[in-house]
Amino acid sequence: MLSIAKLQCQRQLHHFNYSLEVNPGEVVALLGASGSGKSTLLELIAGFIPASAGDLNWQGESLLALPIAQRPVTSLFQQHNLFHHLSLQQNIALGLSKKLKLNAKQQKQMMQIAEQLGIASILNKRPDQVSGGQQQRAALARCLVQNRPILLLDEPFSALDPMLRLECLELVKQLAEQYQLAVLMVTHQWQDALRVAQRVAFVEQGQTQQFASVEQLQQAPANPHIAHYLACS
Ligand SMILES: Nc1ncnc2c1ncn2[C@@H]1O[C@H](COP(=O)(O)OP(=O)(O)OP(=O)(O)O)[C@@H](O)[C@H]1O
């Protein structure tokens, strides 16, 4: 389990304090207004910024002392996930080898994942030759080939058209179950959370104000701001 307990940091005048957990195979949605501190939590987990206090554990072991490269974490962002001068295949291979040299086992795993994500036939194309959805699938494939159990998603599909977005969300849910990934997904869309997440952490002014199942959040939002946000998103 990914366990986050009073995990804190300071950014300029803002103080952040987060508590939540994510089980393997589960998707937890991070919701909250712009600037509330959702991306900051992902940066703390990935190790891009240091924590000032609190706990960040994976399967009972603290991640806090681990450098970025050794954390069991991969991330997918809204954009800038791919190198545009490389093919999709090379971009995915980068997840495994900086020199793009894969052994037979790695090559096989990459092809299996590419097939599952529906991009096997376009692996030789560059990102600017494929659609936004295909680009995000390739970026997701690069995350998956790394075999790291924590997947952080920062609004990865919000630039896609609604149908594609839903398809990609379904895919994430399916992949979380299949690979037993603990997925933490930032979204502004309550509908996305309803579709894909079992639990939701609502972030307000740098704090996880409410961490609950989607049903609980819907039925008993902790304060009027949360109720208003859900009604509007
Ligand atoms: N690199 C940074 N240095 C200093 N402060 C930052 C930095 N990045 C973000 N902040 C501040 O931290 C606060 C939280 O930002 P964060 O990006 O985590 O919010 P968010 O909820 O992800 O917002 P959005 O939904 O708009 O992406 C904001 O007030 C922001 O100005």
From TrEMBL:
Keyword set, alphabetical order: ATP-binding, Cell inner membrane, Cell membrane, Membrane, Nucleotide-binding, Translocase, Transport
Domain of life, per lineage: Bacteria
Entry keyword Transport: yes
GO molecular function: ATP binding
Annotated ABC transporter domain residues: 2-230
Listed SUPFAM superfamilies: P-loop containing nucleoside triphosphate hydrolases
Xref: SMART domains: AAA
PANTHER family in the cross-refs: SPERMIDINE/PUTRESCINE IMPORT ATP-BINDING PROTEIN POTA, THIAMINE IMPORT ATP-BINDING PROTEIN THIQ
Listed name of the protein: Thiamine import ATP-binding protein ThiQ
Gene designation: thiQ
